[in-house]
Amino acid sequence: MKYGISNLSIVPMRNDACDQSEMVNQILFGEHFKALESRKKWSKIRLAHDSYEGWICNKQWIELSEDDYKQLDKDVATITTDILDIITKQKKRLIQISTDEVFGSLATTTATEDSKFNPSSPYAATKAAAELLANSYSVTYNSDIIITRCSNNFGPRQFPEKLIPKTIILAEQNKKIPIYGNGKNIRDWIFVEDHCEAVLASLLKGKSGQSYNIAADNEIDNISIVTKILEIMNKSQDLIEFVEDRPGHDQRYSMNSAKISKELGWKTQTKFEDGLEKTISWYMENPQIWKNLDSNIFESTPWKVSN
Q1: CATH number for the domain including 226?
Q2: Hey, which residues are catalytic here?
Q3: What are the pLDDT digits (tens) for 125-151?
Q4: What's the total number of domains in the chain?
């Protein structure tokens, strides 16, 4: 998982020749959740955002390993269908958390829930495919499914390969901070607690069969974010190093979240600057989280390392 890195409840996926449908069923409804199930205080929220797959159940996270994720990414239709079959049979509500990447790069417009999908990468295409499958179960089998799409999250405990924690950690060590291309790629940034509140609102008050965009109206380019972090940390701008752009790097993502605000009463509570200062403080106060990580995580062109 690429966001959470501590206080996790982990149930690994198996890579052997076991029955995949049964494996998923055990993860969703097996021994691990009997206590929760007996109290009827849990639902399934499937995460498909920030480069990971998983489920969240009453604030407990189940992490899939990187190798498992790669396999699941290849088998997205099968694994998604298994999950949908199971939650339909068990009559549970499923929140499919997707991503703004399904809409592709937008030069000037902003995507609404009715905007067409136009994913640019195979990764984003799998997220769009999962959405289409989830929607098909809602229509065909009346499955209790809600889809949410979120913009870029940031905050405490985020995995250090992501832009903001990576910048904080490298800056603290006075190491070069890689910026892809010219640094002008634009993303909307939302503090993680605001995203969690939006997911909770969707779970408790959302209408089955609907989708909700979750954005914070904080469209900022990468170079501005890095510059701001260095200012807060009182570090030199000379630490910035422009490197080769990553393949298929979309220029701009943008979503309108008026629907969830109007229908569910959700709105952001954390200003970007305040969230950024909270995030910096957390990483400075918790060096044990990142000091012994594999150096490959901080590579300037990580896609080359992984390949």
Answers
A1: 3.40.50.720
A2: 100-101, 123
A3: 888 999 999 999 999 999 999 999 999
A4: 1
